[in-house]
Amino acid sequence: MENMLDSITDGFYALNKNWEVTFMNRAAEQALCCTREEVMGKNLWDFFPRSREGRFYQEYERAMNERVSVHFEECYAPLGVWGSMNVYPTKDGIVVYFVDITEQKKIQEKIYNDGQNLRAIINNTRDLIWSVDRQSQIITGNQAFWDRVKKLTDKNEDEVTNADFVEERLKVFFESYERAFTDEAFSLVREREIEGKKVYEELNFNPIRDLHDVVIGVNCLVRDITESQEHLHKIEDQNKRLREIAWIQSHRVRVPVASILGLVQLCDLNDSPNAEIISKLKISAEQLDKVIMEITGLTDDLI
C-alpha cells in the first residue's frame, strides 16, 4: 500500500483522531516541503501552525466529527501552495488526498487579470466596441455599446436579441457583418442627423479567426468623428477661399499693375515735369508686381 501511494503524483496523508500524522506519501512531502520522518506522529496543526487559517481546520473537523467526505480548494499561505482537497473519514481518523493546483490557479489569476485589464481598456472609451458570432448574435460589448443598446431598445444586455435591431438605419451593420464574414477587414463613414445636427461616425469591422484561421465572428467599433469631420470641412472651405484669393491675385490684381507698368514705360521722363514722380511710381509698381508674383507662386498648388 505504501509503495502504491508513493508512486502516485498527487499528495496523500492520514491523520488519527488526535490529528497526528500517521502516513504521508512522497508527493505530499514535496508539496508541503517536509519529510515524513519530520512530521510522522506530530500534530498537524502544531507542525503547520498556520494551517488553521482558511478552510483547512473547519473542513477537516467536519469530516472527522460528522463522518462525511468533503471537497474544497484552499491555499496554504506560508508556501503559496494551492490544493484541491478531498477529505475522507476512516475508522481511525481521516485521510487527505490533494492535487497541487498552484499552476492552474496562477493561470486562472492571469486570465482573470488579463480579462479585467481588457475590460478596463475597452470601457475607458466612448467608442462602441462589440463582437458578433456567425449568426450575427452579440457575443460581448463594452459599457458604451450596452448604453447605446439600452437607449435604442430599452433592453438590458441579457434581454436584447437581433429582432430588436430592425430599423432601416441599422441595416448597414448586418450588411457589414456579412461582408466581414468573407474575411475582409474594412471601415466606412456614416453620416446621419440627430436632433437637427449632423453626426459622423467611423465604422470598423474586423474578422475574428479561430486556431484554424476560420472566420468565426466579427469585431466591430464605432467612433464619433463629428469633430474631426467638421474640422476637415472647415479646412476644405478655407482652401476653397484661398484658391479664390489666388485666382484674384494672379488674374484680376496683376492686370491693372501690368497696365500701370506699361503706361509708365510710355512716358518720356526727360520731358515730363513729373519725371521724379513717374520714376517713383514705376518703382512702386514693380515692387507691387513682385509681391503679387510671390503670392501667386505660394498659392499655385491651391489653384
List keywords for this structure.
alpha+beta; 10 helices; Beta-Lactamase; PAS-assoc_C; 5-stranded antiparallel beta sheet; 3 domains; 303 residues; 25% strand
Overall description:
There is one protein chain. This protein has helices at residues 2-7, 26-32, 36-39, 44-47, 56-66, 102-123, 143-153, 171-181, 226-266, 275-298; strands spanning 11-16, 21-24, 70-76, 81-89, 93-100, 128-133, 138-141, 186-194, 197-209, 215-224. With 303 residues, it is α+β, with helices and mostly antiparallel strands. The strands form two sheets. It has a five-stranded antiparallel β-sheet. Strands 7-6-10-9-8 form a five-stranded antiparallel β-sheet. The mean pLDDT is 85.
Annotate the secondary structure layout.
Elements: H1 2-7, E1 11-16, E2 21-24, H2 26-32, H3 36-39, H4 44-47, H5 56-66, E3 70-76, E4 81-89, E5 93-100, H6 102-123, E6 128-133, E7 138-141, H7 143-153, H8 171-181, E8 186-194, E9 197-209, E10 215-224, H9 226-266, H10 275-298
Antiparallel strand pairs: 1-2, 1-5, 3-4, 4-5, 6-7, 6-10, 8-9, 9-10
Helix pairs in contact: 9-10
Largest sheet: 5 strands, antiparallel
State the fourth-level CATH superfamily of the largest domain.
PAS domain
Return the average pLDDT rounded to an integer. 85
Number of helical segments with 4 or more residues: 10
Strand segment count: 10
Q: Please state the overall shape, judged from the principal axes of the Cα atoms.
A: elongated
Which range does the strand content fall in? 25-35%
Strand arrangement within the widest β-sheet reads 2-1-5-4-3
What is the chain-wise order of helices and strands? HEEHHHHEEEHEEHHEEEHH
Instruction: Report the structural category.
Output: alpha+beta
Cα Rg = 41 Å
Pfam family, one: PAS_9
Domain PAS: 1-67
Protein name: PAS domain-containing protein
Domain PAC: 182-237
